[in-house]
Amino acid sequence: MIKRSIKHGLQTLRIANRALGRNKMRSFLTALGIIIGVGAVIAMVSIGEGAKRGIEDRFASMGTNLLFVSPGSQNQRGVHGGWGSMTTLKEDDAYALLECPAVQYISPSVSARAQTVYGNKNWNTSISGTGERYPEVRNWEVELGTYFDEALVKSAAKVCVLGADVKTNLFEDEDPIGKVIRIKKIPFKVLGVLKKRGESGGFGSRDDMITIPYTTAMRRLQGIDYIQSVDVRAVSAESMAEAVAQIQEVLRNRHRIAPGAEDDFTVRNMSEIAETAAEATQMMTVLLGSIAGISLLVGGIGIMNIMLVSVTERIREIGLRMAVGAREVDILLQFLTEAIVLSLMGGLIGIAFGIGASKLIKKIKMFSAFKTVVSADSVMLAFFFAAAIGIFFGFYPARKASRLDPIEALRYE
Amino acid sequence: MPGNVIELRDLVKTYHVGETEVRALRGVSYAIGNGDFLAIMGPSGSGKSSLMNILGCLDRPTSGEYFLDGEEVSTFDKNKLARIRNTKIGFVFQSFNLLSRTTALENTELPLLYSTMNGGDMTERALAALAAVGLKDRAHHKTNQLSGGEQQRVAIARALLNNPTLILADEPTGNLDSTTSSEVMNIFKSLNEEKGMTIIMVTHEPDIAAWAGKRIYLKDGLIVREEKS
Question: Is the ipTM, as predicted for this complex, more than 0.90?
Answer without folding.
Answer: yes
